[in-house]
Amino acid sequence: MPDVNVTLAMTQFVPLAADKFDKDKVTPGVLGFLVFAALAVGVWLLMKSMNRHMGKVDFEEAPDPAAERRKATASAPASGSGSASAPTSADPAGDSPKDA
User: Fold this and answer.
1) How far is Cα 63 from Cα 67, in angstroms, rounded to an integer?
2) Please, are residues 85 and 77 in contact by the beta-carbon 8 Å criterion?
């Protein structure tokens, strides 16, 4: 018997809605809003979780081996001979030439 009451209520509301709204216009309604709100809350929770997990990451980049060699060669002649000498490399940037 509850189905009859729902049907009666819907038949009374449909003519009221037909007078107010254009039949060619589609609106999302309450269900569309609820789905959109649920998606927004889900994205917010995922972003919060991602930020928490990214905060736990402890990333330390390995040093560049070429830079370490340059530092070692630059400090070795200065500390070894005790006299000031010109750099042995012809490249002022300290980069070694690349063979093609």
Assistant:
1) 8
2) yes
Could you give the C-alpha distances from 46 to 15, 40, 74, 85, in angstroms and in order? 43, 10, 49, 60
Residue pair 92/74 in contact by the 8 Å Cβ criterion: no
Q: How far apart are CA 85 and CA 77, in angstroms?
A: 8
User: 56 φ, ψ to 5°?
Assistant: -80, -15
Tokens of residue 95, six digits: 């980069």
The set of residues, in sequence order, having a beta carbon less than 8 Å from that of 84 and lying 6+ positions away, is 78
Cβ atoms 44, 64 nearer than 8 A? no
Q: Is the pLDDT of residue 52 over 80?
A: yes
> Tens digit of pLDDT for each residue in 55-99?
998 888 888 888 888 888 888 765 555 555 555 555 555 555 555
pLDDT of residue 94: 54
What is the spatial distance between Cα 78 and Cα 84, in angstroms, rounded to a whole number? 7
